[in-house]
Structures are given as structure tokens and as C-alpha cells.
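Researcher: Next sequence.
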Amino acid sequence: MRSADLKRAILISLDVVVVLVSLALTAEGLRVFAGESITISNLQATIAFALLWIFFLIGFSTYSLRHTRAGTVEYKRVLNATLFTSGTVGVLCYLLGYDYPRDLFIGWITVGALGLCLIRLARRRVLHRLHRRDLLTTPVLIAGSTAHVDEIAQVLDREKWLGYKVRGAVTDERVSATTGGVPVLGTLSRLPKLVDSSEASIVVFADGAFDSATEFRRLQWELEQSHVQMILAPTLADISAERLEARPVAGLPLVDVAKPTAAKSLRWLKRSIDVIGSALLLLIGSPFLLGAMLAIKIEDGGPILFRQRRVGLGGKEFDCLKLRSMCTDAEERLAALRSQSEGNGVMFKMKNDPRITKVGRFIRRYSIDELPQLWNTLVGDMSLVGPRPALPAEVECYDFDTRRRLRVRPGLTGLWQVSGRSSLSWEDTVRLDLYYVDNWSLVQDLTILMRTAKAVVSKDGAY
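Model: Next structure:
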């Protein structure tokens, strides 16, 4: 049995267990709370319906391995298969005149659908953890020009949770390795043999991999018997799926790219959420805020709030509020510490900064020092979600691309906050901020807010 077939068999077995367990839970719940017991006749019908459910899960391609790493396609197909099963069961019961218990059916389908989605979520979480430890990774070859090979290899190396391990590059350029250090295994004419010798499961075709559609079609034919997955990577970086729409026209796989969504983030809906959300969070967080303010005052008797000029929407400066977490002469001591910066060349960062007070270290760990920024959000200087508010000195170092961060309000949290915080490099910080600016959506904001709570509690990258 091939590895792919074994993986699918395991996935199907897990779903069978979920369907049966959800049935048992529903039946037991009805027995305990409603005094209803499942009859032999109903049990036989239920087993038939369970097999039908698994059949439709297979028919809706919920076990396609290409969708098991990321994205929502897997969940959508599970729900579609479940809805189709429900409809089919209803039609069969009507045609056969069979009175199947509605409470049992509705409870079973609901619990089962939830269980099928949860088992996939749990499986992904486990796989992502294993991938980050270089376990159960998938060998990958990247074909194309060396420059584009390096771009893709850099992304795959950064996003280790995907589990793609680059074995080498395939290019017609006469080099032994790419600039980024990816070894060149051979030329494109030898691709089928290189797939076999490297035992690669995936070939990523980047720009420069072929000169025409005809050449790519021939490459597909040559790899047809190798059971390798082919992925085409166009030069479309940091664009969300919501802005892309594939529209095959006359055999051409055209990709329609929607405009960046920076302007949408300034509309009334986001602002309304900022006002309501910041007001509620100020109310909820007031005990922590008052406790921290009292502790700061008791520790050294200095000022409680720290005001710092930051750059906001359109380059307009404002006073960003924070609870003071450093000694009162922190700004004067900064110059002497710049040579010890552990930051990224633009932002000053120091893990064991001697200027941080005891109270300051605690409130920084849990981001309590940033609670006063809810006031900045309430009055419109900031947003709940957005790019990190920058210092004027940092903005002076911005290049043309980086200045695009100023197209939206800076945020109390953002992609940078839930992706590593102080641990991020400057390049990754800018990349995440620009991605947010160009691909803003309300769903993304809500997701970031939920992930922020986890990042704060786990103290990831905070110091």
C-alpha cells in the first residue's frame, strides 16, 4: 500500500470512529434526558445511514491529502457531505415510509458534524507541532529560476508548520546551488528521474520552470506515472485568497486579483467595532489597570503613565499611552544601550533591558502596560487591530514600500502581535503589516483578536 493510500485509510477510520461515537453519545443522551431508547430496527437503519454518511464523505473528496495542511476547503466539504447525507436520508425515509426518530437523527447529525470538524482541527494542530520539529515532513523539489526558487524556499522554511522540506532545486541555470543555498540537483529535462531519485512527493513549479504552456503540459505527462503532486506557484505574494479568483477562459487559467482593501479598513463598520470594543475592554480591564497603576506608584513614586509620540494614520503623530514599565530616566539611558540592541536594525529591543522595573517586567509579560492604548483607540488615534504604531525616528527610515503601513490606523494588536511579537525580524514585521493593509477583512480582525488572547497568556515573544 502506498503512503498516500495508507494516510487516507487512517483518515477514513478516524471518521468511522467519530460517526459511531457521536451516535452512541446522542443515543445515551436521549435515554438519560428523554427516556427514549433506540430499537433494533432503528439501530439497523442507523448503521445503514452511517455507511451512507461515510460514502458521501468519500464522494465529496474530504480525504484529499492536498487540503489537510491548511485552508477551509476540508471543513466545507465535510459540512457539504453531511448536509447531502441529511437530505438523502430524509428522501429515503419519505419514499420508504419509514418513521426514523427525528430527535435521534438531528442530534446525531449535529454532534457528528461537529466531531468530524474537531477531529480534523486536532489532527492539524498535532501535525503542525510535529512539522515544526521536522517530523513527518514532505520532501519537495522546486523547479524554476534560482531567484524564484529561493523566494519559495524561504517561505517554506519560514512556515515550518506546513511540513514541506525542500530537497533541492531543478533549473537550467548552470550553478551548483542557488544564492540562498538550495542545492541544484539537475536540469528540467531530467525532472522525472530527479523525482524518483530524491523520493520527492511534491514538485513546485516557479517562474522560469517552463517557457510555454505546451512545455508545462509535456512535463505533466512525463510525471503522470510518478504519483507526485504538482503545484504551480505564480509570482503572487502576500495576497489573501479572498482577493483571488481563478477564472479559466478558453483554456487559460486566469487569476482575477481584486484591489487592495486598505480603504475598507477606514469605513464606519471597523470604527464602530473599535469604539464599542475599546469601551467594553476598558470596563473589563479596569481592575487590572488600577492594580497596575497602584503598583507602579508604590514601587518608585514616579509617574504612572508614559506618553510617547507615535505615527498614525497618514503620518499624523499622536501621544501613545502606556503604563510606565521603565525607570524614570529610561530615555536618558537609551543612548548608552543602543549598541546592545537585540532588535532588527530599526526597532530597539533588548531582552534583559536594565531600565525595566520589577512591576514593569510583569505588566509587559501580560501586555497590561498597553491597556491605556484602549483610550487611544476610543478617540480614534488607533484601532483595536492594525500595524504596530511606529516611532517618528523609525518612520524616517521607511522606504517606499514600508510607508504603506501608514495607510491604516495603527493597532493595539495585529498580525505582528500574534505571530511572535518581539521575536520577529524587521522584515517579517513589515511583511505581516503590509499583508494586513492590503488584505483587510472583518473576519481577519476577529481572528486576530481571538489569537491575541492566546499570545498574551502564553507570553510568546514578549519582553
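Model: The chain has a mean pLDDT of 85. The two ends are 50 Å apart (CA to CA).
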